[in-house]
Amino acid sequence: xxxxxxxxxxxxxxxxxxxxxxxxxxxxxxxxxxxxxxxxxxxxxxxxxxxxxxxxxxxxxxxxxxxxxxxxxxxxxxxxxxxxxxxxxxxxxxxxxxxxxxxxxxxxxxxxxxxxxxxxxxxxxxxxxxxxxxxxxxxxxxxxxxxxxxxxxxxxxxxxxxxxxxxxxxxxxxxxxxxxxxxxxxxxxxxxxxxxxxxxxxxxxxxxxxxxxxxxxxxxxxxxxxxxxxxxxxxxxxxxxxxxxxxxxxxxxxxxxxxxxxxxxxxxxxxxxxxxx
Length: 277
Known about the structure:
The chain is mainly α.
């Protein structure tokens, strides 16, 4: 027997008005407002795509390679993009997702997502969420945990991990939400969207502290750009081809903010603009 959950039923169950649609509440969100939401995989793709475009800029690539103390291959950049994609993986915690649910549907305190991201890859967990997000591949890349922590600290400050973040990674049947299922759905996209990262070759990722610091800064910049809703419009239902949309929008984002100056170079060369008033 199929049971249709209406807004009225959900409102009665949670005893509050709904901030977003019932359909939206049945998936994992990365961004939301009162009328719509953006799938977590889509937001992570937006930010990773921005990082790819930033890292492709000649000056930025030169700075990254200087800090890395070696040349960075396209495989390295793809692997770094995977790490940037994972910057918000802590949002998988139901205590964070509950911020977009009706009050009363989550019995517990609301969570953040930075420390929770660390918890996913911690030995204190059973490991399934980490496996779903390809932690075994990250280890095979020679990933230093500090590089992962650098991207998880994308809000710009160090963090302290508290015991509470390791708890209550449990399904929430009332909201049709299971963080393990959601993490697998997202993790399965990584080898498709970042295929070059999963080729079995290359050197271990850089571990120098100054590289970690610089990488954290570019990840934070990418997150800022990828959160611009004027460019990265919300899309709720998971689109397995969304990475193409994200990469197209990322080009526009770095051009509009002025990071990619090639267009201006071309105009100056053609004498269509100049610096004289």
